[in-house]
Amino acid sequence: MRISNFGAVSRTKIRADRCSVHGEFDRTLVEAFEGDNRVIGCQRCRFDAIHGQDSAERTEAVESKRWETRNAALFATGIAPRFRGCSLENYRTPLDGQKLALDTCRAYVDQFEESFAAGRCLLLMGNFGTGKTHLGCSILKAVVTRYGATALYVPAADIIGALKASFGRDVASSEREIFAELAGVDLLLIDELGAQGGTEFERQSLHQIIDTRYRNMLPTIITSNLPSTELAAYIGDRALDRLRENGGQAVAFDWDSARGGDQ
């Protein structure tokens, strides 16, 4: 079960083929999270090469397996195609505030093992189009590739929509399963919190997610267009305090929107 529609690697059978050693196999095109797609040949040949003696074939097979594992982990983040190319390296910083935001996010990645142990959260707050989602997704990608962490990107609206849909008949995911998915990853990014209608159901649901991760000492990243006073009113003072506990930081994105540009 996944809340996101972007959580699975696309694998397309190109054609049946025959290996001179292992016989018939399916040659498969594997979608790349970023960059070029790859064609995967005989899996048994790759397995044998990985477990064989040092050689060019073994080096190539190990690299191929690592790419596939990393690729699958990145798809599992649920990051939508628009944000897959986002990175800390391509975030533009012509303004001092943008440099501070980038430095804070770099430090969060560099210190992630400590932040993970402390359940330390991060709040990215400010105007539309200022790069909050760019930096949030960049952090997720970095901790997945550098530390092997599990991570998940979910817009707050998708969480509310999935929970409401779970109340219907013959649904694929129960409310319990949705909360379990959100509480189970090492790092959760809830995007655009506060852009919803602000009903009591929404507030209680989002508070429950934050509170569950807090009790399990799991870090959460929040992006929001609301100032801290309005965010406190939206999710409650208690939830906001928990996001700031153990050194959790709030970064203000107080410059104009860059929508229509590269940011």
TrEMBL record:
GO terms for molecular function: ATP binding. Residues 118-246 form the AAA+ ATPase domain. This is DNA replication protein DnaC. Pfam families: IstB_IS21. CDD domains: AAA (cd00009). Transmembrane segments: none annotated. It comes from the Bacteria.
